[in-house]
From TrEMBL:
Residues 1-91 form the Pyridoxamine 5'-phosphate oxidase Alr4036 family FMN-binding domain. It holds the Pfam family Pyridox_oxase_2. InterPro entries: Pyridox_Oxase_Alr4036_FMN-bd, Split_barrel_FMN-bd. This is Pyridoxamine 5'-phosphate oxidase. It comes from the Bacteria. One of its GO terms (molecular function) is FMN binding. Gene3D superfamilies: Electron Transport, Fmn-binding Protein, Chain A.
Length: 185
């Protein structure tokens, strides 16, 4: 197991009582290089070192990741004062590509979570002030519901505890082995 993964497991364990520690920022860029950043919820880490996020194919991030699949995750654990910056390569799957995986994430959502995918097209204007209504069934995985698999290719870890602070870079050698290097922060 890569060293950074052991560290992340520990950070998640130490902050398990803090719901906000499951949120991280995902930065993407479009074809022209314009950056976009937003908060998403961490949904797990696969055996292949993919950070898992659920999303909607009708959002900007999906379009940006289709154009440019390199992205960055920035994750700060306030309780332990640790920052992880993950360079990632994204791969998106819908129920058409990976029905079992995608359905398992859909089924883990509460009804309130599912509703967020059934309110209509994101970013379309709401001019009449009317309440949004749900269209579709909770039993069916919407075609636009997607799982983003963010494969970690590089990690920049910073721990603010102590003086000097501790910074460590983790990267892959040409053979797929993870190497770690402590660096000047
Ligand atoms: C705490 C928090 C958690 C969020 N979690 C997710 C998430 O897991 N997936 C997601 O697509 N959007 C999530 N969002 C909404 C995104 O931040 C963003 O507003 C939305 O996905 C549209 O982004 P885009 O147009 O850049 O793709 C979350 C927002 C907040 C504030």
């Amino acid at each position: 197991m890569p060293q950074w993964r052991q560290g992340l497991t520990k950070s998640l364990h130490k902050t398990r009582s803090v719901p906000e520690s499951r949120y991280f920022q995902l930065a993407t860029a479009d074809e022209e290089g314009t950056p976009y950043c937003r908060t998403v919820v961490y949904r797990g880490l696969t055996e292949d070192n993919d950070l898992v996020v659920i999303s909607d194919t009708r959002t900007g991030k999906y379009a940006q990741l289709c154009e440019q699949n390199k992205a960055q995750v920035c994750w700060y654990f306030a309780k332990t004062r640790e920052q992880y910056r993950f360079s990632v390569t994204a791969h998106s799957v819908t129920t058409a590509h990976a029905p079992v995986l995608v359905r398992s994430h859909w089924e883990r959502l509460s009804d309130a979570g599912k509703k967020q995918f059934l309110w209509g097209e994101p970013t379309t204007p709401r001019n009449d002030g009317a309440a949004l209504s749900v269209t579709g069934s909770f039993d069916e995985v919407p075609a636009h519901f997607c799982v983003l698999l963010l494969n970690v290719t590089k990690v920049d870890y910073l721990n603010l505890r102590g003086s000097p602070q501790y910074r460590e870079l983790h990267y892959l050698d040409g053979q797929g082995n993870w190497l770690s290097q402590s660096v000047v922060p």
